[in-house]
Amino acid sequence: MTKVRLGIVGAGIASRELHLPALRKLDELYEITAVNSRTVEKAEDFARLVGTNPRIFRSYDDMLGSGEIDAVVLAVPISLNPGMIKRAVEAKVPVICEKPVAPNISAATEMLALSREAMVYIAENYRHIPVYREAAKMVSQGKIGRPVVFSWQKWVAFGRDNKYVQTGWRQSPKHIGGFISDGGVHDMAALRAVLGEVLEVSGFSARNFDFLGAEDTAIFNIRLESGVTGDYSVFYGSPVARNRLDIVGDEAMISIDKDMAELTISGNRKERILVNKSDGFVEEFRDFYRVLNGQKNVLGSVLEALKDLAIVEAGLLSSKERKIVGVGGLLMGSDLR
Amino acid sequence: MTKVRLGIVGAGIASRELHLPALRKLDELYEITAVNSRTVEKAEDFARLVGTNPRIFRSYDDMLGSGEIDAVVLAVPISLNPGMIKRAVEAKVPVICEKPVAPNISAATEMLALSREAMVYIAENYRHIPVYREAAKMVSQGKIGRPVVFSWQKWVAFGRDNKYVQTGWRQSPKHIGGFISDGGVHDMAALRAVLGEVLEVSGFSARNFDFLGAEDTAIFNIRLESGVTGDYSVFYGSPVARNRLDIVGDEAMISIDKDMAELTISGNRKERILVNKSDGFVEEFRDFYRVLNGQKNVLGSVLEALKDLAIVEAGLLSSKERKIVGVGGLLMGSDLR
């Protein structure tokens, strides 16, 4: 089995703390042969961290054209994703890029077409997290009967000194809704995996703190194509941390606690399952490897990533325009014009 | 202290199981001297239950004109409230009437004017429930800092055989949204007591069961005048029973569990309080007595009851018209035309 030679772009939190630990566990599949960062010092620090002496490129395009990499890993500020994905595709280098695919839907219109020219894999790790994959299985197996209502309380205790809050490009975000989209696409990916596609959203969003860059609070009222309705309550800067998705069916309720990696069924049926606490990055890079080797790109497809982003944008747009916003129309760009 | 002579109208669940037990505890304030019901047999059964041999009236108007009552207690199907309140006011008999004040806002337009001619007290017992009064006090004392987000999970395990579900007029309701308004006005009264007035609502509602009369499921996305946003998730026919209001502030969270009569503060500050489990009916009839004796009608005012109903109607209207609905405009009737 030949190792895939990776070029890492971006030496921030994602590359250092999320990707590298996962790639170390997959060293039979990958080797990091190149590193590129806007700041050479950060690239050099990261190369030292990698340890296998990858080549440092001052230019992203030189790296793409070097012939020394089989795929590129993009972990850069969100607003740079579309342009850098495009350059990889034009260089015919397969790319795996951190989510969200773009700062907003209208900035992502080219992405779908590009993903047909070369392999573009959007790294939405939540599609690989065991607790949500297991929840999806249990719901589809009818363990709660017919799903009727869901309620997601996502209250994040981000203080001023939080490492993500401290990121420069997050403090003055070019992407919609700041953390609401940055984190929200994760949750929408998980929601869709468990309950299916979203039809429309009505939302209220607000900014309550000066240090979180943009809106830090939102309530999205979500109606799914299945007819299921539910709410997504997100609050960054909360004094309490909670991330629990409750789904009530006509027979039982399932409570999904991501941080505890715990699934609890209550009601007519009782069950409690603890699953692997994985954050999904190892599973994600394993899936990317399989896709590089010819497997269909399902979990990393651009369309999936666009759907996640469209739900968040629909909620933010609804709050501004005081109307219920359909996700399909937004994906077509119609609601943006 | 002279006892108030009450004429009870309606011999259903409310009169038998909610009002009578409370009035028995207040026998130094009240005596039941008259009973009226559409079905004479039910009136006779109820009179026997009362035990003090109240006079049975076949006609509501005869009771009002009899001179044998100082006030009338209306516990009749919701759709009858406006007309029967009006007849009491015209007979100059003070009236205490079960909530909601009317089947919808447009049917209640006369009520405010009528309440200026004679004393009309709307029996919203939730305004008297200790757990919500205590919560309001704690929030106003700043125990959670500045309120930011609330999330109310109100999941009611009503089966086909539930006594309320079995009520004929509830099975084919003339009031908006069936149980969504019947129960919802309670919750909106409590919400307003704790967090203040509601500005606007966006909602999705749905009917999931054939036996609950009307919409049985709704998610209301609520924005308060204070800027606080939150969701109210209500599902009748749920396999699990939960009634918990979580309010997250910038310093701490308060969780209000009505059924447990429990208040829990978590976050930077920790506290747990158990209060009296009263359903508020004794407190309510005590307040009504004080109002009869000249105290200003605050907790039982028609305007308060209209505000509760307008929030629920705004949510139901929002779902139908796919827009965010302002509560003020609805109270003016403008959104209905």
TrEMBL record, chains A, B:
One of its GO terms (molecular function) is nucleotide binding. One of its GO terms (biological process) is NADPH regeneration. Residues 132-254 form the GFO/IDH/MocA-like oxidoreductase domain. SUPFAM superfamilies: Glyceraldehyde-3-phosphate dehydrogenase-like, C-terminal domain, NAD(P)-binding Rossmann-fold domains. Residues 5-123 form the Gfo/Idh/MocA-like oxidoreductase N-terminal domain. GO terms for cellular component: cytoplasm. PANTHER family: NAD(P)-BINDING ROSSMANN-FOLD SUPERFAMILY PROTEIN, NAD(P)-BINDING ROSSMANN-FOLD SUPERFAMILY PROTEIN-RELATED. This is Putative dehydrogenase.
